[in-house]
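Students often ask why inverse folding is considered easier than folding. One informal answer: many sequences map to the same fold, so there is more than one right answer. In these notes we will look at a single instance of the problem. The structure comes first.
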């Protein structure tokens, strides 16, 4: 399935080593101003920048071909194209019938009878997350008009953990620091330890994963729908489209099972005429609806699957067991780049839920 969305529909197309990829955003109202520099800024966040990342650095040249005139949306479907220019498809020819452990190669080969594009992972590649950056840039500009902000930090790399997010850290300077950083971590000392760990894994030909904590502030109470379009279910559905995400937890997540009900509940009280909660164990969501408190969740991202270490696999042509070592250009840790994709997916999802909500926000874009 290449199309998602309740009100604002997205369709992605293209593959990792195809000439062009693109996204179609349908049902954006006319008259929304889109700042092209905002799109460039978001694309830059995701782009590899150092030895911590892959050496494949695309220019990410993009072009709006529909639904945009004089800096504003026109109500036609907004269609954006982006070029691939730095492919090295020859790296994947020896692997055409040898599935890489940890990748979608084997299940994709089985599902599509070998007709899928295996170069760089094809449609399953993290390269397609560049389309999310375009969507995120547009969604962020709309959410900013509602004073809603989405930001994240790297909460762990392997077994090295950043400090836990706390409400007393929440201010404009802190939010802007995380949103603008290419390696958003709260504690600068821990940040250096994480980077050292990533480089060490790279020197061994190995990889590491980690977790990302995401916060959404400025949401009113009541966003989301009961049952099948709950805030958690829609966010999770969209977030799992990001390659490498293996788990998502809201609020205190699995740790909430270690509490008594008296500890897990978030008591209400008035503050300056507004209803808020003393704690936020449920991550700002109850019954699938937002409570008006910060929406908080964490995503678990597995170690990069492509590693320069011998692994066991099979040859699907000869039906023999083989050893494989993946070559090419790969991130030793995708977490520092995925953190920005998570922000993009979250921004879009919140925008779509705001339009779906029955709490007086329907159509208010």
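Output (designed amino acids):
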């Amino acid at each position: 399935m290449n199309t998602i969305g309740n009100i604002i529909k997205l369709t992605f197309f293209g593959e990792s080593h195809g000439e062009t990829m693109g996204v179609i955003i349908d049902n954006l109202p006319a008259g929304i101003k889109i700042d092209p520099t905002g799109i460039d800024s978001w694309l830059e966040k995701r782009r590899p920048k150092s030895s911590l990342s892959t050496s494949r650095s695309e220019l990410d040249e993009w072009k709006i071909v529909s639904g945009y005139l004089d800096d504003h949306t026109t109500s036609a479907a907004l269609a954006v194209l982006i070029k691939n220019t730095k492919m090295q498809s020859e790296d994947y020819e020896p692997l055409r019938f040898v599935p890489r452990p940890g990748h979608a190669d084997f299940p994709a080969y089985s599902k599509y009878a070998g007709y899928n594009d295996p170069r760089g992972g094809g449609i399953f590649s993290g390269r397609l997350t560049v389309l999310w950056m375009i969507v995120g840039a547009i969604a962020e500009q709309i959410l900013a008009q509602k004073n809603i902000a989405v930001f994240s930090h790297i909460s762990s790399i392997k077994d090295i953990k950043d400090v836990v997010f706390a409400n007393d850290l929440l201010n404009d300077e802190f939010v802007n620091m995380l949103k603008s950083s290419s390696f958003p971590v709260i504690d600068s000392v821990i940040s250096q330890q994480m980077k050292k760990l990533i480089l060490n894994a790279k020197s061994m030909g190995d990889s590491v994963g980690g977790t990302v904590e995401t916060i959404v502030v400025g949401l009113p109470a009541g966003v989301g729908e009961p049952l099948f379009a709950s805030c958690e279910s829609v966010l999770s559905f969209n977030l799992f489209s990001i390659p490498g995400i293996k788990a998502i937890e809201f609020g205190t997540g699995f740790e909430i099972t270690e509490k008594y009900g008296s500890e897990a509940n978030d008591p209400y009280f008035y503050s300056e005429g507004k209803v808020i909660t003393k704690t936020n164990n449920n991550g700002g969501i109850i019954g699938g609806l937002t409570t008006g408190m910060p929406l908080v969740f964490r995503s678990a991202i597995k170690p990069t699957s492509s590693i320069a270490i011998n692994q066991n696999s099979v040859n699907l042509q000869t039906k023999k067991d083989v050893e494989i070592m993946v070559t090419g250009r790969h991130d030793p840790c995708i977490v520092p780049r995925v953190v920005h994709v998570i922000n993009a997916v979250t921004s879009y999802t919140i925008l779509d839920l705001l339009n779906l909500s029955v709490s007086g926000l329907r159509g208010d874009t």
